Amino acid sequence: MQPYKRGLLAVDKQGNRVLFFNPDSFAVEQELNALPPRPHELLMLPALEKAYVPIYGHGVHGDNPHPGHKVAIIDLRQRQISGFIDLSPLKAPHSGQLGRDGKVYLCCEHSAAVAVIDPHSDTLEKTIWLPSHNAHRLTLSPSGRKLFTENEEDASITVVDLCEAEGRIIDNILLPGPIAGIAASPKPSYPPAHHAARPSAAVLGSAFQCER
Question: How far apart are the first and last CA of the chain?
């Protein structure tokens, strides 16, 4: 078995490649370029010795005429592409996180949906459809019981109860304007979301109302 090497992993969206860096010198040690256009975002799964790289598509947010529908699987030990997860008919996979239940939750922007992936079998288990036109980013509560999606131009955050088998939409919170970022805080149920057009943030209270 090939010895496991420490390193840094980065996605070069414009260059259409994944790069392995030496963690001390920051020199590029290996390059993977057999990817469909364009790789975007990165989710490390070190316990499984793999990483997921969503294939977002040719464009950018709001202008992506040829959205992708796959997730590249990177073998961290072999440092190679071991396969792809086909999410069809879901389009434009973007940011994702590993849940406390061991599943990967991945926003599919053009489909306004969250793909739920089993990282052991690398298969799509189910889809959570959202009441929005897109879903750009997501975050999970510290307990792993709730999922929040940031729906950018829709100026909304969708709250999903993950305790229910299929994932139940429990709220869709309207905000004063478009948002560009969301993250869970260590304090349960208080995720902040960043305003897209000005340096400000909205914080959701325990009842998920907007506190600016």
Answer: 53
